[in-house]
Each structure stands twice: as C-alpha cells, then as structure tokens.
Amino acid sequence: MVNSLISAGCVILGEVKNSILAPGVVVESGAVVSDSVIIDDCLIQKNAVVDLAIMDKRVDVGRDAVVGCGTGKDTANEANPTHLYTGITLIGKDVEIPEQACIGRNCIVAPSKKIADFPGLKIPAGSSI
Fold first, then answer.
1. What pLDDT is recorded for position 28?
2. Distance CA 28, CA 31 (A)
3. Structural domain includes residue 98
4. Is residue 101 included in any domain, yes or no?
5. What gap in Å lies between CA 55 and CA 58, rounded to an integer?
6. What is the pLDDT of residue 70?
7. What is the chain's mean pLDDT, rounded?
8. Do the Cβ atoms of 52 and 70 come closer than 8 Å?
9. What is the pLDDT of residue 32?
10. Segments forming the whole domain that contains residue 117
11. Helices (H) and strands (E) in the chain — how many of each?
C-alpha cells in the first residue's frame, strides 16, 4: 500500500497505490488498484486492475478484468462530455464486471448492470452502458 487510505475491514492481498478504500473492500492476490476511490464492500478479483476509477458500493470486478484500460484519457464520455473527460471511469453500485473485460477511460457503467448486460468484453473509451 502506497499513499493510500485504507478503512478498517479491508482485505488487501494485491497492490493498492494512491487510492481510497472504504470498509469491506477486498483486493485479491495479483490485483492492482491505483489512483481510485473504491466504496464499501467491493471485490477486486484475482489479477484484475482498477486504474483511475470511482466505484460505488458492492461492485464485483471479475478475474483478469481491467477498469480504466487503454490510453484514451482524452476521449470524452459520449453522454457527458463536459463532465467526464480526464480519464476517470465511473462504475455504479451493484455492478458485476465480467472476467477479462476491458473497460476504457471516461466510461460510465450504470448501477445494477450484470454480466449479461455487457455488450462484449471490450468497452471503448468514452462509452456508457
């Protein structure tokens, strides 16, 4: 853990840097969380990466998935270009991100989206689902 605020009740088996983790967050082995804010009871599964993201409570990031993938930090969000244009990806509460998914920069995943709601494993920068 480097330059991070970790709440009581978190389980950190992977790497966390420059991030804030609320109570109950689990970061499994091989997983990396960087430059992010992770709210209550989220699970970052084995070998997943969360980079420059804000995740609401009870998000499950599948194994080997990447939230904030690619270099498209300057690709503004198509639905909210004046609010989401610096590379931050937003994940709503109760979302299940599929294993091996790659969610780009400046994306929004609406609350309660489940694996079946994803149009594929690659979500391009600036997209909303």
1. 98
2. 6
3. yes
4. yes
5. 9
6. 92
7. 97
8. no
9. 98
10. 5-123
11. 0, 17
